[in-house]
Specification:
Layout: H1 3-28, H2 30-40, E1 41-46, E2 53-54, E3 60-72, H3 82-89, H4 93-105, H5 107-110, E4 115-121, H6 123-130, E5 139-148, H7 155-158, E6 161-163, H8 166-171, E7 180-182, H9 185-189, H10 191-194, E8 199-205, E9 211-214, E10 230-231, H11 236-245, E11 251-257, E12 262-269, H12 274-277, H13 280-288, H14 298-301, H15 311-321, E13 335-338, E14 341-344, H16 354-360, H17 363-374, H18 382-395, H19 417-424, H20 448-459, H21 495-507, E15 524-530, E16 538-545, E17 552-558, H22 568-581, H23 589-597
Parallel strand pairs: 2-10
Antiparallel strand pairs: 1-8, 2-3, 3-4, 3-5, 6-7, 8-9, 11-12, 11-17, 13-14, 15-16, 16-17
Helix pairs in contact: 11-22, 15-17, 16-21
């Protein structure tokens, strides 16, 4: 190789090494670029006000208060009075020492950047700090908001806001460490509308990290955009009243406006007290270790046997199938017996017709009804008739998610042919094998939301809107899924017979729902007692009122509460009375007091959680 070529080769290698090095520093080694930017510019985040949450009447359920994050730029901190800052913020000196030990250990990574020293400091503490801020060079404050709850109700449906973690940031790249987001309930479901959009102010520094002014005269700044308010369908005062009735009980209450599908109350008990929501990190351990699991939203997550209220489903199917009529009569001798199979019942008149069977909640009657549906000769075999029965049941919304906007909604369970083929063996089961389905037992699992929606369907005489708890507005119109009527497979002409029976249950001779009578209100109801192998039976009740042009439909499910008329019916009827009449009649004050003072937690078996 010639001398000239050797020189050119050496120069080429030098330039190549330099190019690779520059590429590595400027492009590959991102940390160098970030450090350079961090040292040249300072971004101060402007946090937006989170949107408020309002009830159906415009009353505020959740609003904001101003708090402050105390920030520190370690490289700008000079010697300061540690005791003074501890007195202002109620700190221990060890806390301050540990913070600055961390800053020192990570000084290279932090550079001229700012770090949070304290989060969500109150206005009172901030004012005390601001008066003496000159004593603490390198410290600064950023205004942000924290949640406030004017109404002491709805902790589970509202949900809580907390600081995002690494996992959340990975799934939501727009968020950064130090940001807050809704983690449960409405706060989570409508995070994109409530959160708003962060802004920032950009400053430039000199070589020593001192702020010299606004970068590009503020042209690079960005204003924060406040979050949007959301208006719920919830009646805040009714929600609060319902929660007082459910105190010291395990279960849930759901109330729906039948004509719109709007959810009026969504009560899960025991629930999270709203006073704990604003400081969820402080109370999280206590809440999570509570054996009654207050974070568990029973209204949409607890799928349990519906009990006798499910007789109404079988009655409607029998009517549609033509195997049941108003005057169809069946006997009851304290139950239904066929061979070794016996389903017990309470004493009442016999034989009875369809409306009477609803009023008296006769078990035997619906054993006959289910068997006539499944043993109908128009079907080739039990599997074919059962599939048809199941198709009817699911058309009411059972066994699937209703599609509400309530977070974490579960679909419950309606058994399939395969369920019984596995349980009994293919070809080895018949209508008598699954007779428990006649009275809402066995392999059925329904949430209280399912039951309330079913009650609203009866109230509407054969249709329902998908339940929802957010109202639409001009900017965010209501999703079409909540404006389309849903029709089950039973014709509307059969529903008045069920309504008649439910009305007789409240007012007729032998009716099981007399306790639900409300002065001045024409009520329709149905009691249920769901068998429970783990303790006292569950108390169930569904009702709607008034009978004509109904304004409210309610489902109450009280775990280990016994008969439906003992706890669920009084609670549901008091909620109806409060909603329609605005107050409880003097004649029912004693009932209201008994319900409020009722203590059922000792009846509910719980397993203490391991720490």
């Amino acid at each position: 190789m010639s001398r000239r070529n050797k020189i050119l080769l050496v120069l080429f290698v030098i330039f190549a090494v330099m190019a690779v090095r520059l590429f590595s520093i400027q492009i590959i080694q991102k940390k160098y670029r970030e450090s350079a930017d961090n040292n040249a510019l300072k971004y101060v985040t402007i946090y937006p006000a989170r949107g408020r949450i309002l009830d159906r009447y415009g009353n505020t359920i959740v609003e904001n208060k101003i708090t402050y994050d105390i920030m520190v730029t370690p490289r700008q901190v000079e010697e300061f009075d540690t005791l003074a800052i501890c007195r202002i913020f109620g700190l221990d000196q060890d806390f301050v020492r540990e913070k600055f030990d961390y800053y020192k250990a990570n000084s290279r990574k932090i550079g001229f950047g700012s770090m949070p020293f304290l989060k969500q400091v109150s206005s009172e503490q901030f004012n005390a700090y601001a008066e003496r801020a000159f004593l603490f060079p390198g410290f600064d404050a950023i205004a942000r908001t924290a949640r406030v709850y004017p109404v002491n109700a709805g902790g589970n449906l509202i949900g809580y806001v907390s600081e995002v973690d690494r996992d959340y940031i990975e799934k939501h790249p727009d968020y950064r460490s130090g940001d807050y987001a809704g983690k449960t309930g409405l706060e989570r479901a409508y995070e994109s509308r409530l959160s708003g959009e962060k802004g920032y102010t950009v400053y430039y520094r000199d070589a020593n990290g001192r702020i010299k002014g606004h970068y590009e005269d503020g042209a690079a700044d960005k204003d924060a955009v406040a979050g949007s308010d959301i208006t719920t369908t919830i009646d805040a005062q009714l929600q609060a009243y319902g929660e007082t009735l459910m105190r010291n009980k395990v279960g849930s209450v759901v109330a729906i406006e039948p004509s719109t599908g709007e959810i009026l109350t969504l009560i899960s008990s025991p629930g999270i007290d709203v006073s704990q929501l604003a400081e969820i990190n402080k109370y999280y351990k206590e809440i999570s270790e509570n054996p009654y699991n207050p974070m568990f939203n029973r209204t949409v997550q607890s799928a349990q046997p519906p009990g006798s209220v499910f007789k109404l489903v079988n009655g409607l199917i029998g009517l549609q199938e033509g195997v049941l009529h108003r005057e169809t009569r069946y006997p009851c001798a304290r139950g239904y017996t066929n061979g070794k199979v016996h389903v017990g019942c309470h004493g009442h008149a016999s034989p009875i017709n369809l409306p009477q069977s609803i009023a008296m909640s006769c078990n035997a009657y619906y054993c006959y009804v289910l068997r006539t549906i499944l043993d109908n000769k128009k079907y080739a075999n039990i599997e074919e008739s059962f599939n048809k029965w199941r198709e009817y049941v699911t058309s009411f919304g059972f066994g699937q998610k209703l599609g509400s906007d309530v977070p974490y909604e579960l679909g419950g369970n309606v058994p399939t042919v395969n369920t019984y083929n596995k349980l009994h063996g293919k070809g080895r089961w018949k209508s008598l094998s699954i007779i428990s389905l006649s009275i809402g037992q066995g392999e059925l699992g329904c949430t209280p939301l399912h039951l309330a929606n079913f009650c609203a369907t009866i109230a509407n005489r054969g249709w329902f809107y998908t339940p929802h708890m957010i109202k639409g507005d001009e900017e965010h119109p209501l999703d079409s899924a909540y404006t389309v009527k849903n029709y089950p497979m039973v014709e509307e002409k059969y529903f008045p017979l069920i309504v008649e029976g439910m009305n007789m249950s409240v007012y007729g001779d032998g009716g099981t729902s007399h306790v639900a009578q409300v002065p001045g209100v024409n009520m329709c109801g149905k009691t249920g007692t769901a068998q429970n192998p783990h303790g006292d039976d569950h108390s169930v009740f569904i009702c709607f009122a008034p009978k004509d042009n109904p304004k409210i439909a309610v489902a109450a499910y009280i775990e280990n509460g016994g008969f439906g008329a003992t706890w669920a019916a009084p609670i549901a009827s008091l909620i109806v009375e409060k909603y329609l009449n605005g107050e409880i009649a003097d004649s029912r004050k004693e009932l209201e007091t008994r319900v409020k003072n009722g203590y059922l937690l000792n009846k509910v078996p719980v397993r203490k959680r391991k720490r």
